[in-house]
Request: fold
Amino acid sequence: MAQTLSPSLQQRAAAEQERRKRKTNQTQQVKPSFGDWLGIVTPSYNWQWRHLQYVRQHLDKITRGEIRRLAIFLPPRHGKSEMTTIRYAAYRLECDPEMRVIIGAYNQTLANKFSRRARAIVKDRIGLSDERSAAEEWETTQGGGLRAVGVGAGVTGGGGNLVIIDDPVKNREEAESEVYRDKVYDWYTDDLYTRLEPDAALILIMTRWHGDDLAGRIMASDKAVDWTVINLPAEAEPGDPLGRAEGAALCSERYPLPALKDLRTTLGRSYFALYQQRPQPREGGMFKIEHFRLVDEVPREARRVRWWDKAATEGDGNYTVGLLMAEYNGIYYVEDVVRGQWDSATRDAKIKATAESDRLKYAPRTIVETLDGEKEAISGNPVSYWGPQDPGAAGKSDAAAFIRLLSGFSVHCEPETGSKELRADPFASQCQAGNVRVKRATWSSKYIEEMCEFPSGKFDDQIDASSGSFNKLAVGGPVAVPNPFYDN
Reply:
């Protein structure tokens, strides 16, 4: 005989059943798409402009986990922060209140501004914790939340499931400072990147002030293959992702072509950085940015020379540079640059360590028979090393010390004659003729910047090293025997 529940127990059972039903419905409920959600939370904005729709398509891929690294390069005042940094962060928290979001910007004030605006949207739609509600860090009632940080600030505590970096560079002054660019990159690698959860997504939003900015360094690194890049200049260029005709405005409703023309006239070089996402170094006359084509590989069979232009002051003054150039079939490759402001002892250790590294990387290899079985052996001298010999007895003594330092390698010194411009002219001619390539690397943007600013730029050590190595490859002198084919 079936047991009959009392009225009170029946009510409790019904209530529990209803609770479970609501929870199941909430779990199974299909959240609105980000595009639909934008129209609900901010109906007064126009979210249907083509460039915003294009960005949203990629944000949807982030949401679905199809991509995990997204770089967005758009001109100022085109809605990238309003839609992505503020509202996409709020949308993801509404969809998953347990998510941890980190927003980074060039200072804490700007990061807090983004945070407060996202919080204002979220608080009207999901529950927020009363315990943590500051702009720097606030939480949902389910343990998720958002943390705001400025460049240089440590990111302590838990990790992030979604990290958005928006405007890590404030202005031209900061962008032109190599010290500040190093600071931003160190903050990105040492603080933010280490806070990524294993399946976290990372979004970088910038206008491109400088070729060696955070985006430039990431895209020159071996991590570049992980990134999806949205690059939408204010005026369309060939191959435009939106299918615009060349020269067409990105958002004519906000910035029609006459307005862009006025900005271009007023801003000059900065217009190409901020509005076209093509930062251009100041040009000194001999070298142009279009002269340098980036490549991923250099032929193994190439002849190689590394020229050392030495300095001896730690943290100040000129740089020591060891530039490796390769030549193959009339094409010259700037393959590697070692550069730093070191004292004499550190500098010499770097020179010796670089030569040992070159031997391991470039030397021919053969398989030799040993009593213990086959073994790989390195033979030959793959790189020739050169340096200048300054005038007088001190110059001769310094050259002799350089040759002793690289004992066992092919090493030479010679006096330099003529002005820096005169020595650089043969290399500049090959650059202008399209016969020079630059290896894609973290140092490549700084190298190109210095070349383009010569002779009016602050530094010329990479110029001297380029001239020296090129002239050895091009006009003779003892260089290494071309590498035979070999396997790693």
About this structure: The radius of gyration is 29 Å. The first helix runs from residue 7 to 28. DSSP finds 15 helices and 17 strands in the chain.
